[in-house]
Known about the structure:
Layout: H1 2-9, E1 12-15, H2 19-31, E2 37-40, H3 46-53, E3 57-60, H4 69-79, E4 87-91, H5 96-104, E5 109-112, H6 117-173, H7 180-194, H8 199-208, H9 221-224, H10 232-239, H11 241-249, H12 255-266, H13 287-301, H14 313-322, H15 330-338, H16 340-349
Parallel strand pairs: 1-2, 1-3, 3-4, 4-5
Helix pairs in contact: 3-4, 7-8, 7-13, 7-16, 8-12, 11-12, 12-13
Amino acid sequence: xxxxxxxxxxxxxxxxxxxxxxxxxxxxLRQRGYVNVTSTRDPFSVAELHRVRQFxxxxxxxxMPGLDGLGVMGQLRRDANRNFLPVLVVTAxxxxxxxxxxxxxxxxxxxxxxxxxxxxxxxxxxxxxxxxAYRDRIExxxxxxxxxxxxxxxLEETQFEILRRLARAGEYRDNETGNHVHRVSQTSRxxxxxxxxxxxxxxxxxxxxxxxxxxxxxxxxxxxLRPGRLEGEDLEQMRRHVEIGGSILxxxxxxxxxxxxxxxxxxxxxxxxxxxxxxxxxDAIPIEARVVAICDVFDALTSARPYKxxxxxxxxxxxxxxxxxxxxxxxxxQCFVSILPQxxxxxxxxxx
Length: 352
């Protein structure tokens, strides 16, 4: 019963320039229980009517002044995102070549006038059943796609939450950080966008960057929490946090985890090749690691530590300029300076 209701409520359009033919088809449809019927004698209006109503079936005459049936189908085909049109050609023309061209033009079926009412009614029903089944399949496919997208978003959010919680664990170990990872995260996204990276990549950098120092979880408290600068063996021990972070984050195929690994392993590399742990140089350093390196250093310079006072913004910017082309990617330094007001707003929002 439900399908029959859908069938008889399906929107149908009758197109014929002769009023008598329109009335004949309307009467036939009403007798068969179809209640959602629209008619037009203007072939130029068909494409717009179909765009608005999305008819399940169009009964189309072929021989009309100004724009014939083939022309109407041409307009419909330009707007359609499918290989066939819901068109049943109803015409007095018996030209076999015209019938073939109509079918090639997208028509689903062809009936010649004068027609047998029972035969036409059955062809109409058959085409409506196919069209409704086609629409059901499209709707089902769209529903499945939405579910897949929702599931993908859920998985991504789970990955992001794991990263955020790991970053928070690192913060508990290092009492100097405060809101450092939040500022670096937000600033890294802003710098990535300013550098011309697309939004999806910038968003991923935002989510992955808080993990840049997760390896500090593996550094002994006596070194990690010691006030003052580290030297010698203690400094080498501290530098191991990069490889520890790489070990924690490595070996997973998820894009966000792979990026977090690249950032953890690359944010202490230097543009001139003098960084660690691998001595990467220039563009061999992943772009996301170069972005985070600038944001990380700027935030560290402008933040107070037990062993130093916070630098002024200007002194920190001067340092970035001085290290441009040595420690940092000079193009990214210029981009960073260009968004300084945004960086300072982020610092205010996530102040310690």
